[in-house]
Amino acid sequence: MKMLTFFFVLIILINYTEVKAQKIIECASNIPIGVTIQQAQSGNLNLYKRTTLTQPLRLAIHIVRYSDGSGGILQSNIQQKINELNIFMAQALFEFYVYKTDYIDSTRIYSIKTIL
């Protein structure tokens, strides 16, 4: 009998938890003027334009290479990644640029194995 009671209490708790988890929380952001609700729900972030300019954030890039200067990321790849970062972060009003690039030529540091 105790096992049956425990089972029913467990079922009630599971159902109660599911009901609580399904509570819908509405977004508190405002839809820009001229944008319909259907457009806003489409997920097209280009509808939301930046309204203020932000001070660009400068980045110091440290490139680790082998002791002979080989290896490491190319400068052109860095700029490409910065451009992608700026696209992703534009909605949050962040903008980045490369302020300084340093090269660290050390085979010992370049060869560090990491466990992910």
Helix content: 25-40%
Q: Could you give the order of the helices and strands?
A: HHEHEH
Largest sheet data: 2 strands, parallel
- Uncertain spans: 18-22
Mean pLDDT across all residues, rounded? 74
Question: So what's the oligomer here?
Answer: single chain
Total beta strand runs: 2
Number of domains as seen in the coordinates: 1
What gap, in angstroms, lies between the N and C termini? Answer: 49 Å
Secondary-structure-derived class: alpha+beta
Count of helices?
4
The global form is flat
- Our estimate of the beta-strand percent is 15-25%
Query: What's the alpha carbon Rg, rounded to whole Å?
Result: 26 Å
Strand order of the largest sheet: 1-2
Q: TL;DR?
A:
This protein is of the alpha+beta class and 116 residues long. It is 38% helix and 16% strand.
